[in-house]
């Protein structure tokens, strides 16, 4: 909150805040340019992103240029993720029942100034590394959500994943299945739908294409 000037939950109130998914892949993002990067606490990184935003717009268009370091994350089904702004690449590897191993790398432009590279490295270590303040908090949430879900009573209950069921946008120019607001479970539902589709299909020909048409 000190870094962003407000609660991260406010991101869904931004004029342009979305969850988009297609065939299990999911992207949640705003178009605030530096929201994620601001969490690193280094003004030099924000300035670097602002400096290169026109080049990004020239190459990718204005819409995507505003996503460069914005509050966002995406997962390529089933286990590859990326956090723009923090620039962390992640691979989630199952290690047997109830265990998972997470590999994380930080990437920066090779032609970025050395001081910017160093600030990105240090910022990532302070926030989204195994000892980073946000990663430790997230890790504790993942751990205890998992433990709670293994409880005797919980196993007999349905898991509710209905947040944002009424936020689908049918007139968006964005590709895929588009939903308004990042505080949403649309991408989680699409992820498990894809998993279910793959488990039930007897061949690749039977796997449904859910790009723009969710059940």
Highlighted features:
single chain; 215 residues; alpha+beta; eight-stranded antiparallel β-sheet; 6 helices; 8 strands
Structure description:
- Pfam families: Ring_hydroxyl_A.
- It comes from Azotobacter beijerinckii.
- InterPro entries: Ring_hydroxy_dOase_asu_C_dom (IPR015879).
- This is Ring hydroxylating alpha subunit (Catalytic domain).
- GO terms for molecular function: 2 iron, 2 sulfur cluster binding; iron ion binding.
- The chain is an alpha+beta fold and about 220 residues long.
- It has one domain: Naphthalene 1,2-dioxygenase Alpha Subunit, Chain A, domain 1 (Alpha-Beta Complex), CATH 3.90.380.10.
- About 35% of the residues lie in helices and about 20% in strands.
- It has 6 helices and 8 strands; from the N terminus they run E-E-H-H-H-E-E-E-E-H-H-E-E-H.
- The chain has helices spanning about 35-40, 45-60, 60-65, 115-125, 135-150, 185-200; strands at about 15-20, 25-30, 70-75, 80-85, 90-95, 100-105, 170, 175-180.
- An 8-stranded antiparallel beta sheet has the order 6-5-4-3-2-1-8-7.
- The model has no long low-confidence stretch (mean pLDDT about 90).
């Amino acid at each position: 909150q000190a870094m962003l000037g407000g609660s991260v939950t406010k991101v869904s109130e931004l004029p342009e805040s979305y969850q988009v998914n297609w065939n299990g892949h999911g992207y949640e993002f705003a178009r605030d340019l530096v929201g994620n990067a601001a969490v690193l606490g280094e003004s030099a990184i924000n300035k670097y992103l602002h400096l290169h935003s026109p080049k990004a717009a020239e190459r990718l268009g204005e819409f995507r240029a505003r996503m460069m370091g914005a509050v966002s994350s995406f997962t390529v089904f089933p286990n590859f993720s990326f956090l723009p702004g923090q620039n962390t690449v992640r691979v989630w590897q199952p290690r047997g029942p109830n265990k998972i191993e997470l590999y994380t790398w930080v990437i920066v432009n090779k032609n970025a100034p050395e001081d910017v590279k160093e600030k990105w490295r240090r910022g990532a270590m302070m926030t989204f590394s195994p000892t980073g303040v946000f990663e430790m908090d997230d890790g504790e949430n993942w751990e205890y959500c998992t433990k709670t879900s293994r409880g005797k009573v919980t196993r007999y209950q349905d898991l509710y994943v209905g947040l944002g069921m009424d936020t689908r946008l049918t007139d968006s120019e964005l590709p895929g299945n588009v939903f308004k607001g990042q505080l949403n479970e649309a991408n989680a539902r699409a992820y498990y739908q894809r998993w279910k589709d793959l488990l039930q299909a007897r061949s690749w020909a039977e796997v449904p294409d859910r790009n723009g048409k969710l059940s």
